[in-house]
Amino acid sequence: MATPTSADLAAFTGKELNSDQATAVITVVAALAESYTRGNGFTAGEPNDAVGAVILSASARLVED
After folding, report:
1. How far apart, in Å, are the Cα atoms of 2 and each of 36, 64, 65?
2. What residues does 47 pair with on adjacent strands?
3. Which residue, 54, 46, 59, 48, is CA-closest to 19?
4. What is the dihedral of CA 26, 12, 5, 28, to 10 degrees?
């Protein structure tokens, strides 16, 4: 799984999202995930499926609030 996109996040939440806001949220969550895992689970900056799923679900939690 590549880093989720704003379209992925909108599909996951089932809501229409501001693309710029969604992209910003995903960028921050992905950076947090990469930092927390110290790069494990990432290849050339792209997360593996498990980490990508965490990025997507954590991003959804942020845009839902």
Report:
1. 18, 22, 25
2. 42
3. 59
4. 0
**Tens digit of each residue's pLDDT (9 = 90 or more) over 7-61:** 999 999 999 999 999 999 999 999 999 999 999 999 999 999 999 999 999 999 9
Residue at 30: amino acid letter: A
- What is the C-alpha to C-alpha distance for residues 55 and 9, in angstroms, rounded to an integer? 10
Q: Is 14 left (phi over 0), alpha (psi -120 to 50) or beta?
A: left
Q: CB of 18 within 8 A of CB of 8? A: no
Which of the 8 DSSP states describes residue 12?
H
Among 61, 65, 59, which Cα is nearest to 6's?
Answer: 59
Q: For residue 65, is pLDDT > 70?
A: no
